[in-house]
């Protein structure tokens, strides 16, 4: 390395002492001396520089290879991520479709049960009305029969006791009392029937309210964002429990 610096110094000296070319910034140097010094500089460089250059070349090759492998890994990771995302999206859509289908089944079942309850209540109401009407008619007929019998007996008694006006009046009052009692009993039975029907309709109204709240809860579960997972088993169990308690 000392010879390298020495040869470089000689080259500098040659250039500095070289004859200038007029009208230019160039100079005339002895070609042979300069080439000889350059050969000495080249020969004086240690072989480690070539090894270092080989190391640098190998480093570039390793860097390029690592970059290529990194690009391949990145592309593979992206493909895997897209595949996983697609599968997750498909699974989420399937779960949502299953939840909607189950919700539709629950709504349809609730509607069927509501219609059945309405029909049962209507039939029961009609049966009570029919029985009440029959009982009312029977009571009215019994009252009329008692009234007719009282009138007939009163008339017979009046014919027999023409002079006894008080007996006739008592008979008429008794007949009127029997008819009034018959009418009052019929009205009481009609009122009891109406109260019973109103109670059954109130129970049915409460059942419909609970059914609507159950349907509302199912719709709220369907509106949950995807970040909050839909617990279908827990929701199904709670809904079945509610329906059973209502029955």
UniProtKB/TrEMBL annotation:
The keyword rRNA-binding does not apply. Residues 79-91 have a biased composition (Basic and acidic residues). Keywords: Cell cycle, Cell division. It comes from the Bacteria. GO terms for biological process: cell division. Residues 67-91 are annotated as: Disordered. Transmembrane segments: none annotated. This is Cell division septum initiation DivIVA, interacts with FtsZ, MinD. It comes from Actinopolyspora xinjiangensis.
């Amino acid at each position: 390395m000392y010879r390298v610096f020495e040869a470089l110094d000689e080259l500098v000296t040659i250039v500095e002492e070289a004859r200038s070319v007029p009208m230019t910034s160039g100079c005339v140097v002895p070609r042979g001396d300069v080439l000889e010094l350059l050969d000495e500089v080249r020969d004086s460089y240690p072989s480690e520089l070539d090894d270092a250059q080989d190391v640098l070349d190998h480093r570039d090759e390793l860097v390029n290879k690592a970059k290529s492998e990194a690009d391949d890994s990145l592309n593979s990771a992206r493909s895997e991520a897209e595949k996983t995302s697609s599968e997750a999206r498909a699974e989420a859509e399937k779960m949502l479709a299953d939840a909607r289908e189950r919700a539709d089944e629950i709504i349809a079942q609730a509607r069927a049960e509501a219609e059945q309850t309405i029909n049962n209540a209507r039939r029961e109401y009609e049966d009570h009305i029919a029985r009440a009407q029959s009982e009312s008619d029977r009571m009215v007929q019994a009252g009329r029969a008692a009234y007719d019998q009282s009138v007939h007996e009163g008339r017979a008694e009046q014919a027999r006791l023409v002079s006894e006006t008080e007996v006739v009046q008592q008979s008429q009052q008794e007949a009127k009392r029997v008819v009034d009692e018959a009418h009052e009993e019929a009205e009481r039975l009609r009122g009891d029937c109406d109260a019973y029907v109103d109670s059954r309709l109130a129970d049915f109204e409460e059942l419909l309210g609970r059914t609507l709240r159950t349907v509302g809860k199912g719709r709220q579960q369907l509106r949950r964002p995807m970040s909050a997972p839909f617990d279908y088993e827990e929701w199904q169990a709670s809904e079945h429990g509610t329906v059973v308690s209502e029955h």
